[in-house]
């Protein structure tokens, strides 16, 4: 029985030593956290900040549609201008042809 009580005493001593060491460890961690000087910084020490703009996807879509509309209206007006130029050129040719025929008939 003396062997069993001796082992129990060793076990109790080991548990007590472990508990005391844990308490000391936690006390050291808590104490070191009080000494820590934490400064609020913008992503690091001495770095430059980035100017960023948040983009609204709805506004981008509206702008894209507006640009597409402007491009299509510009194409339409360009086509209309070309058609008018062709009509004017055709009328001029017809007028010149009519003038050439008129002096010959006289």
UniProtKB/TrEMBL annotation:
One of its GO terms (biological process) is bacteriocin transport. GO terms for molecular function: toxin transmembrane transporter activity. One of its GO terms (cellular component) is membrane. The chain crosses the membrane at residues 12-31. Residues 73-98 have a biased composition (Basic and acidic residues). Keywords: Membrane, Transmembrane, Transmembrane helix. It comes from the Bacteria. Residues 65-106 are annotated as: Disordered. This is TolA protein. It comes from Escherichia coli. The lineage of its organism: Bacteria, Pseudomonadati, Pseudomonadota, Gammaproteobacteria, Enterobacterales.
């Amino acid at each position: 029985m003396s062997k069993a009580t001796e082992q129990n005493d060793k076990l109790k001593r080991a548990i007590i030593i472990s508990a005391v060491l844990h308490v000391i460890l936690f006390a050291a961690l808590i104490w070191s956290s009080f000494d820590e000087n934490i400064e609020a910084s913008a992503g690091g020490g001495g770095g430059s900040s980035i100017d960023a703009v948040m983009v609204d996807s709805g506004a981008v879509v509206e702008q894209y549609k507006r640009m597409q509309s402007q491009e299509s209206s510009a194409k339409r007006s360009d086509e209309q201008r070309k058609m008018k130029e062709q009509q004017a050129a055709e009328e001029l040719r017809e007028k010149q042809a009519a003038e050439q025929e008129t002096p010959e008939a006289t």
